[in-house]
Amino acid sequence: MSQRLLSAWTRSYHDLRPRIVPRLRCSPWQGRILYGRTFSSLNAHRSQVNAILPTELSPNEKRPHLEYLVQRFFGSIWNDFDLSAVPEIVSPDLVFRGSLRPIPGNINDFAGYHKEVEAAFPDFYQRIDAIYTDGDVLISKMSWSATHTGTFRGIEPSGRRFMYPGIFIAREKDGKIVELFSMGDSWNMYKVIQEGGSEVIEESVWAGRKTGGRENEWKKK
Fold first, then answer.
1. Residues pairing with 142 in the sheet
2. How far is residue 56's CA from residue 58's CA, in Å, rounded to a whole number?
3. What is the dotted CATH code of the domain comprising 59-220?
4. In CA terms, which of 8, 22, 48, 77 is 20 to 30 Å from 154?
5. What pTM does this model have?
6. Tens digits of per-residue pLDDT, 26-49?
7. Which SUPFAM superfamilies match (predicted)?
8. What Å distances lie between residue 115 and 69, 82, 83, 144, CA to CA?
């Protein structure tokens, strides 16, 4: 070892030694051995601690909470038209696109959209037919149905029923829903309420529109 390297190493060692082996007299060579063993032990201990106490939830641990958020979002906020649950479930930084609102909006826009739908379709029902999760993202297969009993964007009440399928995607951050995206066959809805449509919903199908879904599972938890 050259004299320059030895001097640099010795200075580095003496700078670190008080934090590693206080009040212990030893040579630079002995200190280097002890330094390596000390930090090797610390790294092994750190690995053991991290294995026992992970810094974040695993995907399997996140899944039940994310499912709860989405089920509560539809089962309470929408199907019961209860906006009081929004602060608990939805992030103030929300960005959303509704199946009847193609333009992205924020948390304030959501409240207005919610009231608009409730006024035109007071029996609007959102059924979750299937749920798929991947980390902090949830995708659900949806069925939307309602009766047109109020004015909706200039369209006078028709009293007609409609049902249409769609897809819903949600992303969770810090325990709340921060992104929502809905895409459904709303063209079929407009066809029914505006033009009369030709689709006839059987009574048995209409009667079962609120059964078989997963939107109320949160009430059992």
1. 128, 166
2. 6
3. 3.10.450.50
4. 77
5. 0.68
6. 454 444 444 444 445 545 544 553
7. NTF2-like
8. 21, 10, 9, 17
